[in-house]
Specification:
Blueprint lengths: L2 E9 L2 E5 L5 E5 L3 H12 L3 E5 L15 E3 L2 E5 L4 H20 L10 H21 E10 L6 H8 L4 E5 L7 H4 L5 H8 L4 E4 L2 H15 L2 E3 L2 E3 L5 E6 L6 H9 L1 H13 L5 E8 L6 H13 L8 E8 L6 H21 L7 E4 L5 H10 L2 E4 L8 H9 L6 E5 L12 E3 L4 H13 L2 H17 L2 H14 L9 H4 L3
Parallel strand pairs: 1-4, 1-7, 4-6, 7-8, 8-9, 9-12, 13-14, 13-16, 14-15, 16-17, 17-18
Antiparallel strand pairs: 2-3, 5-6, 10-11, 11-12
Helix pairs in contact: 1-16, 2-3, 3-4, 6-7, 8-13, 9-12, 10-11, 10-14
Bound molecules: GDP-alpha-D-glucose.
GDP-alpha-D-glucose binds next to strand 13, helix 12 and helix 13.
Length: about 475
């Protein structure tokens, strides 16, 4: 049945699993996005288009039929092993990802990766065009699908199209290295509304459109020669704050948090880092800063431990494999040099956990350390705050995470400044209860007010409001002031 609302994202909110009897099945992988979008999906007969993960033998064959899971209509897009390598691991994760994150790693440019990116984006656009009802709203997500808005508009000019970028949008100086910069900008301009995490990303985009594509712009509006107007604006994403708070208050989670502390040898303070094992997250520098504090005697392994959870990620991409080896070596060296029997300096876990275990870790941790070199938002920081129902606990947060714009009461640090990080870690460690409560109370107010439902609502409302008709030919007369 044609859908009035279509979500197009790289991944479906389910994972394909092989059941014990050998048949294929689906397991929900509910993340923040699906929680946010679910109510509006249900209210509008929504359909979600995305890749279920894993390679498909023949991506065009009908082995992936639409299906329903938990009342949601899901339309799988199959990717071949070659597309996964070129489009996903290649162009998305080894070209766009590093460029959009301030060149934290060196991006690679390969024409065959780009060709695959175009082809896969065409596949998503064609599928969206075939399931959207007349005049429907289509919301496209993230950096893997930046060409979809324009491709979709060509196929279906009747649609209202929104795009949201979950990662930072880089300054012009970096973006213009991309050999396909113009195509990417034009791809995004197919949308009526282009959403970013922060106002800076939206401003970078509008400036690039003016410079590189030559369209007229005024503040957050772009005027296209065909008479359309495109709006670029910030919509900082958030979390299901009430859901995390409820989870943290759950008796089983509270008990588990106490068990974790005990299993760690009941230290006075637990430091915690939880990140996908990604070079943007600043794990290496953070652990070095912590180790130096132990080395100099400012912290003692009898009193404190650093729990670092590194969630496996993009393991087929070479830079991620190198990073894993580097962190493995660093943790081994730190624990070898500074640990004592039963008292490692760092408790390192290369694994992923259920949501309940995440909430128990947040509840057990006295100091949460989130120090990415660059991050669109960083939901882990917000989840920690949501779980601190006792208004205690300290957050050490990178200035370069989008979350720093809202969580001003965290100990804000420059993740490139090891001494600065050491000072902040110590301050957070030594802070008294009154100071912790003052900071945490303010952050919790922010998170509760700006939760993920508010985010989805703001984007959908703005998308519904965007002038869908053509702008007047005289550019000056139309601009919002
Ligand atoms: C991108 C942008 C932006 C992590 N490990 C486990 C687990 N998680 C969950 C966390 C959190 C999410 O994954 C991670 O989100 P982040 O925001 O921290 O980072 P990215 O994955 O890089 O996300 C980022 C985000 O998109 C949203 O727009 O904020 O800047 O890079 O929700 O809780 N969840 C479970 N087990 C784990 O082991 N269940």
């Amino acid at each position: 049945m044609p859908a009035d609302l279509v979500i197009v994202a790289n991944r479906l909110p389910v994972d394909r699993v092989t059941q014990p009897d050998g048949t294929q099945g689906w397991r929900p992988s509910p993340g923040g996005l699906v929680t946010a979008i679910e109510p509006v999906m249900r209210a509008n007969d929504g359909t979600w288009i995305g890749w279920p993960g894993g390679p498909s033998e023949d991506a065009d064959a009908g082995d992936l039929d639409p299906f329903e899971a938990d009342g949601l209509q899901l339309v799988p897009i199959g990717l071949t092993a070659e597309e996964i390598e070129l489009f996903y691991e290649g162009f998305s994760n080894a070209t766009i990802w590093p460029i959009y994150h301030d060149l934290v790693a060196k991006p690679e440019f390969h024409r065959e990766w780009w060709d695959s990116y175009v082809k896969v984006n065409e596949k998503y656009a064609a599928k969206a065009a075939s399931v959207a009802a007349e005049g429907a709203t289509v919301w496209v997500h993230d950096y893997q699908l930046q060409l979809v808005p324009q491709m979709l508009r060509e196929l279906r000019p009747d649609l209202r199209i929104g795009f949201y970028l979950h990662i930072p949008f880089p300054p012009a100086e970096l973006f213009q290295q991309l050999p396909w910069r113009r195509q990417l900008l034009e791809g995004l301009l197919g949308a009526d509304l282009v959403g970013f995490q922060l106002p800076g990303g939206a401003a970078n985009f509008v400036r690039l459109v003016r410079q590189r594509v030559g369209h007229k712009t005024h503040r957050d509006l772009v005027y296209l020669p065909d008479g359309r107007t495109v709006r670029a604006a910030a919509f900082p994403i958030s979390i299901d704050a009430a859901g995390f708070e409820a989870l943290a208050s759950d008796e089983a989670v509270v008990t588990r948090a106490a068990e974790i502390r005990e299993a760690l040898g009941s230290p006075r303070r637990i430091f915690l880092g939880i990140d996908r094992l990604d070079y943007t997250k600043g794990i290496y520098a953070r652990l070095r800063a912590y180790a130096e504090l132990i080395e100099t005697g400012e912290l003692d392994v009898e009193d404190a431990v650093f729990v670092q959870v590194a969630v496996p990620s993009r393991e087929q991409v070479e830079q991620y494999r190198i990073l894993r080896d580097e962190i493995d070596r660093l943790v081994g060296r730190i624990n070898g040099d500074l640990g004592r029997i039963g008292r490692p300096a760092i408790s390192y876990l290369h694994s992923s956990y259920p949501r309940e275990e995440m909430a128990a870790l947040y509840t057990a941790a006295d100091v949460m350390v989130v120090t990415p070199y660059r991050d669109g938002m960083n939901l882990v920081a917000k989840e920690y705050v949501a779980c601190r129902t006792g208004d205690d606990g300290a957050l050490v947060l990178s200035e370069f995470a989008g979350a720093a714009d809202e969580l001003r009461q965290a100990w804000l640090v420059n993740p490139y400044d090891i001494n600065g990080m050491k000072a902040a870690l110590l301050e957070a460690y030594r802070a008294d209860g009154k100071e912790l409560t003052r900071r945490m109370k303010a952050m919790r107010r922010t998170i509760k007010k700006h939760d993920v439902a508010a985010w989805a609502d703001a984007f959908m409302t703005e998308l519904a409001d965007v002038e869908h008709s053509t702008h007047a030919k005289s550019v000056r007369a139309v601009g919002r002031s």
